[in-house]
C-alpha cells in the first residue's frame, strides 16, 4: 500500500442484527405495543451488538464492522445521520418515535416508501429529497457504536452508506437531479470522517453497492471526484469503499485512481472481470469477497483460494471477506439439528462463513489446513448426491412445447370469466392472507411441540377459515380468500411439500423492520408429490356462494425467497418449480375453483443489476409464470400480485405474464405505476393497492375513494379492481376490519 496505515486480513462487510432468536424483533414490537420502554429496547440492542462483535473478534476477524446494527433499516439510518428525514415527521419530539414514524407511519404520518435492496429480499426505506433539502450531520449513532466497540477491545471499522449510493437510492420529490446535491452532502461526510478519526477509528467502510449498476458518465465522474475529495482529508481513517451484488466494471479503475485506501469487491456475484482488474491495484487493500454472503453453501476452496493467491502473487495486499453483508443469511447452523445430515454438511450460515473466512486467510498466509480438506469433501459429496438430478422431472420438462404457455387472448377470456363469476363493477378483494391471530400461533406452537396432533390442528385452522369467510361476507367483499391460517410463510409452506427443498428451524433472515422470514433451501430437482392447497381452498369455497381465490406462490418468488442451488442456471430451477405449481392450478380448477392467484411479488427482485443481463432474465421469468398458469381453461381467472419494487424496469414483463388481474403495490407511491402500465398499452385487469398495509393507519373511506378516483384516470372501470396493496398477515384484526369496511364503502360509492 502507498501509506503506512494498518491493514487487516479477514473481515465481513456486515452482520445480521435481529438476534439469533429474533430478540430485537420481540423487543421492538413490545416497544411499539407499549409493553416495554425505550430503555428496555436499547438494552436488548446493546446485548445483541456486544455478543455479535465479540464473537466475530474471537473467531479471528481482525477488522470488525460496526454501525451495521439498525433498529429498522440502514438507509433510514443514513437519512437520520444526514438530517434528511421528511418534514412531516419533524414535529415528533422523541428521536426514536420520529425514526419509527418515518419507517412505518402512525395515525397522523405516512411512512417513507419501501422497496427492495438491489436484488435481495431485504427492503429499504426510500429517502425523500429535493433541491432544497437542508442536510445536517447527526453523528451520534456511529460515534456511540464505535465507542462501545472500542471499549470491548474490538478492532472496529465503522460502516456508513456512501454518498453516491445514498443519492441514487433516494427519491427526488421535486424532479430535481439528486446527483447535484453532492456538493451539499460531501461536507457532512468530511466532518463525519474527522469525528470518527478523533474517536479512534483506523478504518471506515463506505458502502457503495450502487456502483455495481450501470453508471452514466456523470455518475462515474462523481465517483472519481467524491472519493478524491474524501481521500484528501488530512485527519481521517483509512477509507474502504465496499461494493457488492455484482461487478464493479468501470467503477473499479475509477476508484483505483483516487486516494482511498481499500476497495471491497464481490468476487462471487462479480465474476472474474473484477478479479483481473484488481490484480493491477497494488497501492490499496483489496478486500476480496470470495465467501458468499448472499447464499448458504459452503465455500469451494478450489474456487476461492486460487483467486486469492492470484491477487497476492500479483503484489496486491489482500484481505479475505464475505461478498456482501451477512445480513442476508441466518446466524448459525447450530440449531438446525433436524436437517438431513448430508445436506447439513454442505451448508454454511453466518457463524460458519466467518470461520471459512478465517480458514482461507490462514491458508493464504500460512498454507492449507485440515479445514480445507473438510470443505473439499463437502463440495464433492454435494456434487455426487442423486437428489440433485431427477431424470423424470427433466424428461417431462424437455417434452413440453410452446402450447404449454399459451391461453386465448385476454378480451376473450374476460367475457368467459365474467359469465362464470358475475362480478360487479370495481370488484373488491384482498391479496390473500389475513391476520395471524394468537390462536393460530398457539396452535402452530402446540403442533410443533407435539401437544396436539395434525387432525386437531387442521380442525382449528378450519375454524379460522370459517371465521375469515364470515367476516368477508359481512363486510361485503366480492372475491374472498381463505386467509391462509395454515401457512407459516408464503414460500416455506410450499417448499415443505415439494421434493428438492428443505426447511430450517431457526434460519431467520430480516426482510424489513421486524419482519423476518425463514428462506427454504433448494438443493435438488423439484417436483410436487401430492396436492398442496386443494383441501383448504375447497373447504373455504363450501362456506360461501361467492368465489374464493386459490392462493399459490409463483415460481420466480419461490426461487427468489429461497436459498437457491448454485450448480445450475436459475432458469432451469424456475421451470421445475413452475411445473409443480402448474399441477396445483390444474387440480384447483378440477375441484371447482374459478379464481386462482399465483403471486409474483419478487419478479423485480431477481432482475439483474446490469441492463445487458436483464432481457434474458425477464424472458425466462415470464415463461416460468406462464408455464405455471397456462394449464387451466380460459374461464378460470388467473390473478397475480406484485409489491414493493420499482416496477418501471419490468413493466413489459408484467404485461407479458398475461395474468387476467394484476394487483400491485401503489399506495405509498401514489399510483405512479399506472402511468408506466398505460405507457405500454396494458389491457388486463389491475388492482392498484388503495391503502398501505405496512402501516397501522386505518384509511378513511374518503381517502380510499380519492385513491380510486386517481386510479380511474388511468384505468377504465371495467378493468379496475379494489384491494389493499399487500397481504394482511402482519396486521391486527380490528385494523383490517375497519380498513376493509372503508374500502368496500369507497368502491360502492364510486359504482
Descriptive keywords:
751 residues, alpha/beta, TIM Barrel, 2 domains, seven-stranded parallel beta sheet, five-stranded parallel beta sheet, 27 helices, 20 strands, 42% helix
Secondary structure: helix percent: 40-55%
Strand order of the largest sheet: 1-5-7-8-9-10-11
Label the overall shape. Answer: globular
Biggest sheet overview: 7 strands, parallel
Using only CA atoms, what is the Rg? Answer: 26 Å
Mean pLDDT: 94
Could you say which structural class the secondary elements and strand pairing correspond to? alpha/beta
> Can you tell me the CATH architecture of the largest domain?
Alpha-Beta Barrel
- Please give the alpha-carbon distance between the first and last residues: 71 Å
CATH class of the largest domain: Alpha Beta
Model regions low in confidence, pLDDT < 50 over at least 5 residues: none
Strand content: 5-15%
CATH topology of the largest domain: TIM Barrel
Number of domains: 2
Say how many strands there are: 20
Number of helices: 27
Descriptive report:
The chain folds into 2 domains: 23-384, Alpha-Beta Barrel (TIM Barrel), CATH 3.20.20.210; 414-750, TIM Barrel (Alpha-Beta Barrel). It contains 27 helices and 20 strands. The strands form 6 sheets. A 7-stranded parallel sheet has the order 1-5-7-8-9-10-11. The model has no long low-confidence stretch (mean pLDDT 94).
List the helices and strands and how they pair.
Elements: H1 23-32, H2 38-58, E1 64-66, H3 74-81, H4 95-104, E2 114-116, E3 123-125, E4 128-129, H5 140-151, E5 156-161, H6 163-169, E6 171-172, H7 182-198, E7 203-207, H8 217-231, E8 238-242, H9 251-256, E9 262-266, H10 272-278, E10 285-291, H11 301-313, E11 317-322, H12 341-344, H13 350-366, H14 370-384, H15 391-399, H16 410-421, H17 438-448, H18 454-475, H19 492-495, E12 499-502, E13 509-512, E14 515-517, E15 521-527, H20 534-542, E16 549-553, H21 555-560, H22 570-590, E17 595-599, H23 614-629, E18 637-642, H24 651-657, E19 661-664, H25 672-679, E20 685-688, H26 701-712, H27 733-750
Parallel strand pairs: 1-5, 4-6, 5-7, 7-8, 8-9, 9-10, 10-11, 16-17, 17-18, 18-19, 19-20
Antiparallel strand pairs: 2-3, 12-15, 13-14
